[in-house]
Amino acid sequence: MEDAGPSVAVENLVKRFGDFTAVDHVSFAAARGEIMGFLGPNGAGKSTIIRMLCGLLRPTEGRAFVAGLDVAQEAETVRQRIGYMSQKFSLYNDLSVVENLRFFGGMYGVKGAELRQQSEWAVELAGLRGHEGGITGELSSAWKQRLALGCAVLHHPPILFLDEPTSGVDPISRRQFWELIHQMAASGVTVFVSTHYMDEAEYCHRLALIHRGRLVALGTPTELKRHALRGGLLLVECAPLGEALEVLAQAPGVLEVAVFGNALHVVVHEVAPAIDALPRLLIARGLGCTRIEAIMPSLEDIFVQQIGAQAARAEAVS
Description:
This protein is an alpha/beta fold. The chain has helices at 46-53, 75-80, 97-107, 112-126, 141-152, 171-186, 198-201, 221-227, 241-249, 271-284, 299-317, and strands at residues 8-17, 20-30, 35-39, 61-66, 69-70, 82-85, 159-163, 190-195, 206-211, 214-219, 232-239, 254-260, 263-268, 288-294. Helix content is 38%, strand content 28%.
């Protein structure tokens, strides 16, 4: 595959386990140096997609090409050309930092002087200088994740798969981890990241929203927020919140209502008429309304709306 082509191309990918469909006809492509995020709740199918692309699971249907290789036909070759960091910490706790690096380097065929040089590079990348001899099991969660990343990229793979890489890591360490991801992408590495954190999804170049094995939306964070939401979005501060939600959910022109903190996010057909009508409706029902204004939707708003739309389509078909 030419450099100008996609690093990864997926066509109608399906994975079934018996009667259960974990991945349902997913298609997308990712370019060299792109950070592609898989965003969705636990059990959405994100990890299953990644494992198929890594050659660890064979697709039931469809095709996937990684670095120009068919993952179903050339799984072993694919695994030599990618880096993979699993959802759970998978290094050896009883080995030192440098021993883990040497072990995984050997697994990727990196030996001798090259292994020493790459181990030094990985230590610098992970910020572990001075901790090379430390026992891995004694490192903090954040340092362990950095070490796992260093092991995954020892052989300088052109494509990197990170499955929930910051799960259980504090916010500051998560930000630092993402700085490393962007450094690698800037050098031309294509990075796939699965996450259920809405805030860190903003760091991706493009996002695939995954729900129940299906791709419900695909685009940059900005594109998704501008175009994926039907109608307009209002922030409504009112009380009591539960009663107000029930009233607004039945109001004309309201498409969707959800609780966000101590307020409601209300999706409406048209913003201006709703800003005028909804406070009057709440007051008429004996409820308070202290604030109503149009706002830019968050990724969480988009995800909730897309899931609702998917459920409505499924109900219509059934």
